TrEMBL record:
Keywords: Membrane, Transmembrane, Transmembrane helix. The keyword Membrane applies. Belongs to the LytR/CpsA/Psr (LCP) family. It comes from Clostridium sartagoforme. This is LytR family transcriptional regulator. InterPro entries: LytR/CpsA/Psr_CW_biosynth, LytR_CpsA_psr. It holds the Pfam family LytR_cpsA_psr. It comes from the Bacteria. Residues 92-249 form the Cell envelope-related transcriptional attenuator domain. The chain crosses the membrane at residues 21-43.
Length: 332
């Protein structure tokens, strides 16, 4: 990967940092607000999530590898997956993050893993890390993270990006700037979403700031053939989520109820309501001491064309050591 690519990567990292924090803390605030005012109703709403069981013996945790760290039992790691899948598909994980509750160093951490990272997936060999979700769902994805980076993740939360139209429509739409280049492609994606979801959203006819409904915003987030390719696509997804958060900050608790009713069926996790409330309380107790890192770190990865496919290659042992030092020892 060229130096210019890494410079652009650093710019994207800065944007993603504030966005990741907003999503994580925003979700916790919504959950805790409903817990305070809702009581049993809160438990009922969370039951709408798709709660699944994981085989804890098949998550690739190697305890011996963690002996050099003294705080592993006190620090909680949760895998976060953002999946863009249509009905009947498992989908690949477009976004892979590790949320860390670290009471030892009094920090919340979000660790992102580049989706094109070239790693070993049990039973499938070397491949992009985001393919693990399509091959074996969250269990294989967690196993892949644990085995490659020497971690101890046992829990996850997965959100399907297809839930975005419902969220945005409840909030009354979002304002997003459409470029001339994006205008060339967005209407094709609008037609595609309309056809699949049975909606009838209109085309965008000019560039500039637009007030988008849910279908239009999802179409915008899926554009991938402009300059910047898939990097720009993930940046558009972050732009949409950032716009949603802006709307959420002024929304009423009543609208939170509607949002969770619509969105939670798109959420999959092995955590129950009690687990989520406990984690949320602990996270907010840590406060705004938030950090984010991304692996492989800038300067440690290189793009490679292998068999006609782009991969991000890197030294796995270096990335493993850096990631574990960051998560468990707070060393950057």
């Amino acid at each position: 990967m060229s130096q210019n690519d890494y410079n652009e990567s650093k710019k994207r990292k800065k944007k993603k940092k504030s966005l990741g924090f907003k999503i994580f803390i925003g979700f916790l605030c919504v959950v805790l607000a409903l817990a305070v005012v809702g009581g049993g109703y809160f438990i009922g709403i969370l039951s709408k999530m798709d709660n699944i069981k994981l085989n804890k013996d098949n998550l690739g945790i190697v305890e011996d590898e963690l002996k050099e760290y003294n705080n592993t039992s006190k620090i909680k790691n949760i895998a976060l997956f953002g999946v863009d899948a249509t009905d009947g598909e498992t989908g690949r994980s477009d976004s892979i993050m590790i949320a860390t509750l670290d009471p030892v160093h009094n920090k919340l951490k979000l660790t992102s893993i580049m989706r094109d990272s070239y790693v070993n997936i049990d039973g499938y060999g070397m491949d992009k890390i985001n393919h693990a979700y399509a091959y074996g769902g969250p269990e294989l994805s967690i196993k892949t993270i644990n085995e490659n980076f020497g971690l101890n993740i046992q829990d996850f939360v997965s959100v399907n990006f297809s839930s975005l139209p419902k969220i945005i429509n409840i909030l009354g739409g979002v304002d997003i700037e459409i470029t001339n280049e994006e205008l060339k492609y967005i209407n094709k994606y609008i037609d595609d979403v309309n056809r699949k979801d049975g909606t009838n959203s209109p085309h965008i006819t000019y560039a500039g700031v637009q007030h988008l409904d849910g279908t239009q915003a999802l179409a915008y987030s899926r554009i991938r053939y402009t300059a910047g390719g898939d990097y720009k696509r993930t940046e558009r997804q972050r732009t949409v989520i950032d716009a949603i958060f802006t709307k959420l900050t002024s929304a009423s608790i009543g609208s939170y109820n509607s949002l969770l009713n619509e969105v939670l069926p798109y959420v999959q996790t092995n955590l129950n309501a009690g687990d989520i409330l406990s984690l949320g309380t602990k996270a907010l107790g840590i406060g705004n001491n938030l950090e984010q890192d991304r692996f492989p770190r800038d300067g440690y990865g290189e793009g490679a064309n292998i068999g006609g496919i782009y991969y991000l290659t890197f030294d796995i042992e270096t990335a493993k050591q850096q990631m574990r030092d960051y998560i468990f020892n707070d060393v950057r």
